Amino acid sequence: MQRPTDQNDNFSLNDVGITHPSNDAFIKIDEAGKIFIMSEPNLGVIFDPSNGSISWFGDKVNVVTKQDEGFKWNNLTFNPAATNYAEPTFTYKKDVINNLYDDFERYLDS
């Protein structure tokens, strides 16, 4: 997707939204259902129902979540131990990972 430019001057008659009177910030819903939430021309979020995408624009994106399993991608959880190349970046959440000793009782003679 192309980085947005100054979109707040491009409201058509069928668009709904608000613009700030003294800066470039705006929220716009266009007639195709695309939602723009922009703080300035290249900083914001665009929701596009035509291709089912959410696009984030900015020089830096910070994600702040809970420490334990706060950032997920589909069924994978971000691995906070992935600070070096020896650890995977994403893992399955804790209750899905099989431990070596899970259900060990069934292998013991009663």
Summarize, please:
This protein has strands at 16-19, 26-29, 35-40, 43-48, 53-57, 72-73, 76-78, 90-92. The chain is an all-beta fold. The chain is elongated, with a radius of gyration of 22 Å.
Which helices and strands, and how do they pair?
Layout: E1 16-19, E2 26-29, E3 35-40, E4 43-48, E5 53-57, E6 72-73, E7 76-78, E8 90-92
Antiparallel strand pairs: 1-2, 2-3, 3-4, 4-5, 6-7, 7-8
Describe the overall structure.
It is a single chain. With 110 residues, the chain is an all-beta fold. It folds into two domains: 7-57, no CATH class; 63-99, no CATH class. Helices cover 0% and strands 30% of the residues. The protein has no helices and eight strands. The strands form two sheets. The chain has a five-stranded antiparallel sheet with strand order 1-2-3-4-5, with no helix packed on it. It has a three-stranded antiparallel sheet with strand order 6-7-8, with no helix packed on it. A hairpin with a 2-residue loop joins strand 6 (72-73) and strand 7. The chain is elongated, with a radius of gyration of 22 Å. The chain starts with 15 loop residues before the first strand and ends in an 18-residue tail after the last strand.
Which key phrases capture this entry?
single chain, 110 residues, mainly beta, 2 domains, three-stranded antiparallel β-sheet, elongated
Structural class by SSE content = mainly beta
Distance between the termini: 63 Å
User: Strand percentage, roughly?
Assistant: 25-35%
Largest sheet: 5 strands, antiparallel
Report the C-alpha radius of gyration, rounded. Answer: 22 Å
State the total count of DSSP E strands.
8
Q: How would you describe the oligomerization state of the chains in this entry?
A: single chain
Fraction in helix: under 10%
Uncertain regions spanning at least 5 consecutive residues: none
Tally the helices: what do you get? Answer: 0
Overall morphology: elongated
What's the overall average pLDDT, rounded? 80
Number of domains: 2
